Amino acid sequence: MRPRNPDGTWAPPYLVVRGTWPDFFYEGDIWTYSIYAPHDMRRLIEMVGGDQMFVNRLDWTFLRNHFDVTNEPGFLIPVLYNYAGRPDKTADIVHLLLEKAFMDSRAGIPGNDDSGAMSSWLIFSTLGIFPVAGQDVYLISTPSIPDASLSLSDGKKLQNLAKNLDPNGLNRYVQSATLNGAELPTSWFRHAQIKDGATLVLTMGSAPSSWGKTMPPPSMSDANFEGCAATRIHSTK
Questions:
Q1: What are the structural domains, with CATH classification, of the chain?
Q2: pLDDT, tens digit (0-9, with 9 covering 90-100), for 195-205
């Protein structure tokens, strides 16, 4: 991604590492913003050259320290592997970040909490699910707690169970999943599936499996794409 000059020509690559208020890339860099298109990740992956090329680009982003867990532009990047059929890599990165970047000390979070944004990232990632902003989709990563319950509206609850989870995080790969007793073969689910209360059961193991690789999360360029209910109602008016 590059900025344009006022005359419409492309400006040189903007190589500021961590942009601030006057910079083209705010709280991120060219790598962070070039892989962030949550509304249509499938189209972005096609433009990059396919699933493996996108995985390579994500790997490079982490290995070359272009990812910044302390600022919001990077919050979704660890779970983007799910869109390329590699939830196992999502599990690796999320587990590593939770282990290295968050502590039980006064400086326990790696950056400004920003009205709870950093803490929210920690809580969702510890639970093993992460919401895609502006959508009704949650991406599954890797849980750190064997039994957790989230309070929903009207007294309903979402219970997250992680079978075979070990305290050292060795069994961090999902082998299979069920949602309300039905098989869940995807590494994602919609809010409508949990809004009336639900139980998500993840069976964990020590090696990557074939789970979650066949059907990526929804993207706008999908032939059968459906947004959330509120979006569909608004678009028909």
A1: 35-218 (3.30.2080.10)
A2: 999 999 999 99
Closest C-alpha to 78, from 14, 29, 142: 142
pLDDT at 163: 98
pLDDT band for position 235 (cuts 50, 70, 90):
very low
d(CA 80, CA 92): 12
What pLDDT was estimated at residue 92? 98
Cβ–Cβ under 8 Å, residues 107 and 138: no
Average pLDDT value over all residues in the chain: 92
For residue 6, the number of C-alpha atoms closer than 13 Å in the C-beta half-sphere is 0
Q: Tell the burial category of 7 from Cβ atoms under 10 Å away from its Cβ (0-12, 13-18, 19+).
A: exposed
What span, in angstroms and rounded, lies between the C-alpha atoms of 160 and 179?
10
Q: DSSP letters of 166-219?
A: -TTSSS-EEEEEEETTEE--SSEEEGGGTTT-EEEEEEEESS--STT-SSPPP-
DSSP 145: -
Q: From residue 66, give the alpha-carbon distance in Å to each of 58, 60, 167.
A: 10, 8, 29
pLDDT at 84 over 70: yes
CA distance 160 to 44: 31
